[in-house]
Design goal:
The chain has about 140 residues and is α+β, with helices and mostly antiparallel strands. It is built from three helices and five strands, in the order E-E-H-E-H-E-E-H.
Amino acid sequence: MGGTNPYIEKVDVALPTKPYTITFISPDGTRKTVEVEPTKIPYGQTGLPGSILDIALAAGIDLEHVCGGVCACSTCHVIVKQGLDSCNEGTDDEFDQLEEAPGITLQSRLGCQCVPNGTKDIVVEIPAVNKNLVKEGH
């Protein structure tokens, strides 16, 4: 899945120019650190190029994204525990969607819209409520 959402404002981001890492903390507490290689961005077609969602999916990390990464839901909600100041500013459209996510904090972002610029390593927590209950009900 993937694409764009014509109903939201276009996001300007600064892509990284040097490698950096993102450490993902899963709901069970396990950590996985991913080396981000700027020359490989975008890794896929889901979320903004270089977004936390783009990087997570490329690394095999199960980050829910029901809308396909186009800022039309809140299922890719993440909490940026470290390095938030190296990420692009959130838009009103992103924060409107984020209000629908349970358990939001001041460090909450949508993984599909949050793009680190690579000046710092990032630590991201995936909330337990991130899971799509319909998908897990199989």
